[in-house]
Design goal:
Oligomer: single chain
CATH class: Mainly Beta
Shape: globular
Number of domains: 1
Mean pLDDT: 94
Number of strands: 10
CATH architecture: Beta Complex
Helix content: under 10%
Strand content: 35-45%
Largest sheet: 5 strands, antiparallel
Bound molecules: zinc ion
């Protein structure tokens, strides 16, 4: 998968829908507690490459640990769709759960190991 392209996606029940632009060059395989327990693989996007198209009212926030990452879950089906966080310089970043992209095949992605457990 090469080149930036526009993709659509959403949660399992379909209430939450988004559009994003990404090359999926960097997808995490993180060993932290939440990524491990939920099987999450994130890619990071600037806020202008991610548009929530539907379901803002269905989203529930989940905060833990340092509470700096605001995980956004569908209140109906419980799927983690994305998270809002900030980079070291304070700029906003969207962590998108790549499994929510329409038609994604996780086995075709190159995963980048991230040692979130020891951060
Ligand atoms: Zn849902």
């Amino acid at each position: 998968m090469t080149g930036r392209r526009v993709m659509t996606g959403g949660c399992h029940c379909g209430q939450v829908r988004f559009e994003c632009t990404s090359d999926l060059a960097m997808v995490t395989a993180c060993n932290c507690s939440i990524c491990t327990k939920k099987g999450l693989h994130f890619t990071f996007l600037p806020p202008n490459s991610f548009q929530l198209r539907a379901g803002a009212e269905s989203l529930k926030s989940y905060l833990f640990n340092t509470r700096t990452i605001n995980h956004q879950l569908c209140g109906e089906c419980g799927v983690d769709v994305f998270a809002r966080g900030s980079r070291g310089d304070g700029s906003e970043v969207i962590a998108l759960n790549v499994a929510c992209i329409d038609g994604i095949d996780l086995a075709q992605l190159t995963m980048t190991p991230v040692d979130g457990r020891n951060r």
